[in-house]
Batch of 4 targets.
Target 1
Amino acid sequence: MKIQRAQTTLLTTESKNFLALLQLGILSLQVLIFVFILLIAGRQNQLARRRPTMAQLVNGDTVYISEKDRYWRYPQVIRKVVSDWTMLTFNWEGKIAGSDKTDEGVKVDDRQRVPTNTWFASVLLEDDFAQAALKDIAQLVPADVFTGRIRSVAIVNHVSEPRQIAQGRWQVDMVSTRILIDRTGKSERLPFNRTFTLEAVEIPHSPLGSDASLVEQRIYEIRSAGLQIINIVPFEPKGS
């Protein structure tokens, strides 16, 4: 009579499946770690290639320039764009800047016009916003501005540090005053306090260079900061 020995299985089917899944999980984790290391190495190489360079300004000063992200802008540049727009928009002399020619203005529709400097300032605005803003500003321009009987000066009292609200987008608060002066010396002061929203855009370059028209050169110069204003809303300073 033969006695059959009971055969025992060291690993059940469930155990084998568990080990297979465990090995697969470990392999997947190793792959993820490897990819993560490659990403870090690539980022370090990018940072290593960002070496500062020197540039000489027209006044002879030498400055260091470092490569930045395409959406990065210096806070001083953002604040300057806000100040430049305000002064260009509301400084009215009745003359074309740099000449003795009477400023007849630029038409924004069949009945309204704005001073030439105001129109140039509008190239700092996003296109659709600029069209609406010019019509609103035209309503603030007295007709006597174009005859030289009334002048306007904008004084920027304070521009806040930019607050980044998204990648390549900032908000800035400004406190300023518009002063209207007539020929008799009588003046009127009008507060102009606003919050500006700006975004980074490509820096334009004229394909014609120095051969471009004066108007084209000035437009590219105004847009050289690589920023545009996309919204302007009233701002109420604290304690006012």
Target 2
Amino acid sequence: MTGDHTSTAGTGAGTGAGTETGAEAGADTGTGRDAIVRAARRAFTLRPYAEVTLRGIAADAGVSPSLIVKRFGSKERLFNTVADFQPAADALFAARPAVLGRHLVLTMVRLRDELRGDPLLRVVFSLGRDDERTLLRERFREQVTDRLAGSLAGADRELRAELIAGQLLGLGATLSLHRPDGAGTRTPPERLADLYAPGLQLLIDGGAARRDPREPVSVGG
């Protein structure tokens, strides 16, 4: 991967003619764009950038390499799309803090259904990789964790944002691990939110007032 990639990714290149952003890739019009993005996510998160080819992605997606070039322009721009968490973050954080926990769960389930895959989980496969895949972690932290921290109140908001991000990744991993016939797949989204959202909301709100563990607890009247 050339040094140009860093500047391309940092400036959001890939939105010009012959390319598309992550948001556009999420709306398939029957031309194979979703399949290309899903195949690219698998390829770029599981293998070093230098080993990934447009021909291989095309074969996995069931399209021609020329279609990838037409839609995304180049391998570098396609990688930039895969490394973009902004569309998912926009949807996930589109609620006021008081109801954000439930919104996060319902939106995660909806996005997984619409995208036929998890919108965030690919970052987990980039852990421990000292190559171009580090960009996925950098983007995730900037577009998801840091953005969430900026919307929270309290001195420990950065910690709580990291824990919330971890819980979202855990939810996605659990649903993926037990598909296609796991209990989570069979459970209505509203029920999933009933069970999972309170823990998220506790982190969003900052939890109950802290008590000094050395302070004696009053028992009885």
Target 3
Amino acid sequence: MKCLNDGELKNMQKKYDWLLFDADETLFDYPSHIGLARLAARYGIAWTDADYVQFQAVNQPLWRAYQEGRIDIGQLEAQRFADLSARTGQPAPQLNRELQLEMAQLCNLLPGARELLAAAHGAGIRIGIITNGFAVQQEPRLRASDVSQYIDLLIISELEGFPKPDKRLFEAALHKMKQPAPQRVLMIGDNPDTDIAGGARAGMDTAWYNPEGRACPEHVAPTYHIRHLQQLHAVVLPPR
């Protein structure tokens, strides 16, 4: 599926009552290699590129297992930090918490995110975040980024008991939004398997944010396919 240009997006303009954003790599960057290096340094470990590759070789399959409902958040937390826990002598939950608080300070808004949030808020569109990220990180990160004034709703899968793409998480979001028509909600995210597939299952329109130009999986059909967050201005904001 090709990315749409601004003219094509403008022709698809639609009124939405809510914009529902993924957090990591959609609104915020996520420099986990820096956070992990800082965490390891606290315990006298010189974190190398090889350490990071090894960590991700364990971490990424665990996240997929969590998203597919094969493990819970506690198992994810424990298993991904098993090696570093053995090296530091610290329990995995503590290491995970320390990393999340570190990441809350490291994460920055991606290009165009602040402007889109401000413009949508100014146009009377309500804004939510729906994330599979750990709860301990979310509020501190919003405060650090200074965009909390634009956010009307924060849905965290860890607290709801269902990860994206589980339809129940999106239904919980709709309930907390006071049950808008799902087609008046636009789900925006970078992960086609969790953000786009999950939003579509709940009846929402979807916008796949794909800055790297990856091929779209055959089983996913986003309403919009964009390379830059700025492109959504043409879709969601009323014409001047």
Target 4
Amino acid sequence: MIRSAVLIIGAFAALQTTVESRIVNGKVVDIRDYPHQVALLDPADPEDGQFCGGSIVAERWVLTAGHCVWSLLVSQVAIRAGSSYHARGGQLIAVTRKVIHPNYNNVTFDRDYALLNLAKSLTLNDNVAIANLVGADDFFQPGTVCTVSGWGMTLYNGPAHQLRAVDVPIADHDRCRRNYDSKHVITSFMLCAGYDAGGKDACLGDSGGPLTCSGKVAGIVSVGWGCAARDLYGIYADVAQARDWIQSQINT
């Protein structure tokens, strides 16, 4: 199940209502603690149209999940940076170009990476900063505690307007693959994080946002089987596997 706030089939379609739809069992946080985090919004509805998250990787580039934007026109996407609230404050900037990884698979969500080129440069400050990305040589052992952040949605009470975060440990890749079995193919371009007992996770509306480990963005919220389910960890696009592609795009 994708973790964007809408089923993106054409322009913003109906909300999914089959899963708990927010950072599960997390806490409210301040954007100063996650200044690389941005919200992806429908520019026609910037107050209520948040549907995914992303990470600032250069003054005019945002990294997000391919499935967040693959079917959308760039005119249907804007970002808000520098605010703890997705609906107000900070810097609201249009997107002029999207670059989806050429090997992205919209069935398996393999290589779930996309970059958004902004209409103008972000103004960097205490609330807006370029993310540190993991390198190809970075490796986080299973059990390493990381943090996933995002706004998401709530099923019954409307949007979770303020940024939330929850700590989740990196899961063993082979165990994750065995646990998912036929439910979802876990590829080498994915990493898993969460608890065996479940209970804490990213969820609907958090797609595209960062999984931050030791101050570096290691994953992009991608897919999962429900949210916070026992033995079914959250699945993230592995940033280390795409580092060279990311750099090649933002340096052009």
